[in-house]
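SAMPLE LOG
Freezer: B-3
Tube label: C17
Construct: single chain, 105 aa
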Amino acid sequence: MSCGEPHETDCSEILDHLYEFLDREMPDNDCTKFETHFEECSPCLEKYGLEQAVKKLVKRCCGQDDVPTDLRAKVMGRIDLIRAGEAVPEHDVDGDTPGAGVLNS
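STRUCTURE (predicted):
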């Protein structure tokens, strides 16, 4: 996605790190870079607005549920693998394979 205009920060970089911006998980100077980009680029601003709305909706609908610690650890492990550019295994991060608890007859 791009508006076709040159920017100091490329649209692909903005979109690759959009959730870090939404979650305020980046340094302030990077946040400022994103805010400047959104002022210049309406397609990225629109994507930001959409993702922000989805995040608010999920929080409103699911914000009261407690997340089990082991599930959070698995999800964070997969996110770390993806961020590192590694292949995500088809089975659970802890080594379980789908259907491993099912008895064969």
